[in-house]
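request received
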Amino acid sequence: MGSLTHVTINFETSHLIFPTLIGCILALLGLAIAIRDRRQLAASGAHWRKILGEMDKMRFFGTLALTVLYFSAMVPVGDIWPNTGMGFLLCSIPLVALSGLLFMRERSARSVVPLLIVAVAAPTLVWWLFTDLFFLTLP
Amino acid sequence: MDILAFLSPLFVLLIIGGTLVGIIFGAIPGMTATMAVAVCLPVTYSLGLENGLALLLGLYVGGISGGLVPAILLGIPGTPSSITTTLDGYPMARAGHGEKALKIGICASLVGGLVSLMILYFFAPTLADFAIRFSYVEKFLIILFALSVMAALSSDLLLGIFSGFLGIFISLIGTYDVTKGGNGEWRLIPPGTEYWLEQGFSLLPVLIGLFGLAAILDEAETGMKPGLGGKGVDVGQHERFSLSIFRGQWVNLIRSSCIGTFVGILPGVGGSAASILSYSNAKTFSKNPQNFGKGEPAGVMASEAGNNGLTGGALVPLLSLGIPGDSTTALLIGAFTLQGIQVGPLFIGNNPVTWDAMIVAMLIANVAMFGLMYFAIRYFAMVVTIPKHILFPVILMMCVIGAYTINYGIMFDVWTLLIFGVFGWLMTKIRLEVAPFIIGFILGPSAEVYFVKTLESFGDLTIFFTKSWIAVFLWVLIALSVGGSAYLQTKKKG
Amino acid sequence: MTFTRRTLLAAASAAAILAQPFAASAADLPRNIRMVIGSTSTGGDTYQAAAIVADALSDKLGVNIKVDAVGAVNGLKALERDKRGTTIMLFHDFAYLAELYGGKGFVNPFDAFTVGATIANNPGNAYLVGANSPYQTMEDILTAAENGERVRVAIQPGGVSEIGFSAMKNAAKVRAPGSEENIVAVNTGSQSDKNQAMWDGLADVINGSIQANEQFTQLDGDDQKAMRFVWITASPETLAEAPEAGMGALTRDAMLDYASPKTSVTLDGTQDFTFDKEFFLIYNKDMDPAMIDTIDQALAEIYEEGEIQKKETAAFFTPNFRPSAEAREHLMEKRETYKKVISDISG
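response:
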């Protein structure tokens, strides 16, 4: 009995024990799911076609594209004025404006103007608050 | 106690101001109480010890409490410890009881804060002595108990548990952290990504990605229909609120506060475990466990009483052992050393005035938190009247700030936000469950360390059952929780 | 106006010109500097050491310096990316110890970066035993190892916490080759884990610090939490700089009892091993040397004025300013000593 439950851990390789254990459990659970839900899995092509078909593609992929652009631009822009948070400020204004326009359902002057005001005011306020007042680093 | 020694208008003002700033930090997704304390720490040097602590404790209490606002109104937890608040708070808001949920959360926070404060004041040294009887074994079982809530949260048991284990698995990516007892080796890093993934994914960006960005993507997919949360949130401004909702819930409130406090006392177990454990217990012992996750007020109470219970608890090891109970109290050590005060087992005896000042400050902070939040509910509720095309871009920007500043300026954390935003959106499409996933992700690293260290030091699997009566007691709780969820699942099907 | 490639280029070059003043003249530092530190805690000693020196430098040079607790790995990465001197780093001996201990992803900082001025020591690194421990001194511990008794030492592997343990093993080997096998590591993490390892009976000796553990040494012997110091690794010269009142009930004279030469952990049979946890600046390899000179110059003036020493002493640091060249030589020598210790015991 004693020898059955006995384990020796080698510290040098102890980083692999838990990932292996969890990996095995995951594989077992995955297998169980695959067996139980085999019909749904077989029909997954149709499932995704339906999702893509019903999707507001412009807004969804537009959001993704804007986000990627926003994240990618922040550091290079910020590097022009190091450690001032300008990268964040200068990229956030167009992001808020453009994604706002993208999300807007009826683009009339009455709704665009408040958006543009927010697009300038909100990032500026936040930028001032965090870099000047709280002295945190922004890109 | 000689209250006059420190009680001045400035002292009170600093607490209230601190609480207010703390609430704001807590309410912004991705900003935490820890960060609020960190940015204000330098200010305290010029304030002197008692006044400095007043500010910091206000920030601490406010920061922990503020997280409930976005959790309830937007379904985005403001801090990791308010995850379980979203589970029932957000459904309540969607069903038109947003204001009620906020009030319940605020009241429960106050109860949690006050109960833990009382425990701190009367039992700090005794409890610290008890807490050090928790070795790796007991701590592992506590984490396991918290993990057992994964089962309770799953709408489909198999898929839910799979999601939870996936969360654990992903949390293990990177270095086996030396500061937690690991050996500093890498694992599970896909080749070619070492430069970014060496440290793994940080919790906060993952959290706001899964809840914040994923929600935005979800909205974008369905075309940003008017009305918040897909179905439209009516805050229920004119709904009557009376304390009668707490009738029959006092046991839940007190139990959750005590659990929160106790989790705070155990160094290293981590703040988020407090609300998760309270929530899990509330569900296990509830008469209507099937309502949890669908807008059950008792769930909000448990979660909020639990995470505010943490505040007093985390100060116990700090003030009676010199060891911080969570990441925020770790910063308080900095405040003490800045003033040349030593923390350790003799702190309370050597610094009676400071000790009293801290207790009074915590008391005022809790009351101030309650007053400020209760008063501000109508302004919080305005959030839901902001049109989506303005709200979501601003939320996206705030998420970026939170992700970037959480580790003091690491761009990969911002990309993590995007990765997990997309991942969170995908999960819902393939019916994986976000709540068990994030709980697995939060608790995974601690579970690993305590499990591996137990075997490393004791070398025998039976130790998990034989170490102490505490271990046996924890196994009983785990069995109850898992058994309860399994029973519910079969009842639902049958 | 339409955005053609040419207008964009013009805008970009205009921006570049705008950026010029910050980096143009050699000795001028950038207006906004980020000081990363090798710790993720803003409550720890590295952060405090950094905050004190960053404040003083900002005042002296009229620039903004933000301290960011990004941690060792991310700090070194940020430093590597920035050649303009807008990112500098403050760290301690872990910077080179990590590589000596084979830490994943760490390189020799003397090759990959420019090591700069030292600014302060933390003299607190110490080893403790339980109050009821049979071991009274380091001598007892090393003798026990010689007699075949296993002594378990709780440390956090791979850095400052391990170096004293390596020294113990080395001393055991010098005294009685083979006896170093009886000094074994209990690998734990934070200070609370190390204390807990002692209370759980998993370790006989723990690594700790004067600051974090002194109050435990004041507890009654029958309190399970009570501890005793057995060794303070700092050199006697460093401890001489510590405040006379010491820390808590431990006066400077009492500290000296636990340090070399009174408590001896031998390095090679003739000299004692000592370890001071030193904080120093690290720069990008390609950063303009004139900027480093400017910082050295400013630090020299700051330490001349004497205000910073008061701040450092109050936070239980011992000031030790050395300009870059001198600091580099000193630290490289230190590295060689420890490199030998580490290779001897693993050899």
